[in-house]
Write a structure and sequence with these properties.
Growth Hormone, Chain: A, disordered C terminus
Length: 211
Amino acid sequence: MKADMPRTPGPSFALALGMVALIGPLAVHLFFPVIPAVKAAFGLSDALAQFTFSIAVFGMGVATLVYGTLSDRLGRRPVLLSGLALFLVGTVASAAATNVPMLVLGRLVQAIGAGCGLTLVRTIARDAYGAERLVKAIAYLTMFYAIGPMVAPAVGGVLVDAFGWRSVFSFALVGGIAITAAVWAVVYETKPAAATSPAGGVLRGYAELFV
């Protein structure tokens, strides 16, 4: 649904966007201290243990390429909520994993969902705050982007030592639910009426770039 008239974002809107910026660290950096525990639990080689981490980086990177165009066609809010839902599904699958393929698949789905935050937080901020206030909004969001990767590994390490490696996904699930609830309650549709990309816009754009 398109926004019918401009709305003024309040503090809760800004806080919700900041929370979405933390979804990436919950998918990637929180897992880093878990690698040795996962390696021991499943008897993995060093390369395969590292793959359970790098697959998330790959999935998130690929996902960021499509979220922008999807949000131009379908709206910021539904695409953001869909990405957060994917993050929750992938987190549950990772926490319940009983073998390596299930863990890798869960990590991939989790990261694809988390990719919505990297793309849509700045897009929504641009829509909502306009050119006058965008610099201040981006500075505020950058603080969350910076804090997340710094804090997440330490939190993950404490959780692994105290409760085991699956507790990291439980923590990510609780955090993801809180972020999703905040977005559902506070973040409204900001897509401008003119922001509509034609079908195949992403592929066409990349084809033109590399030709």
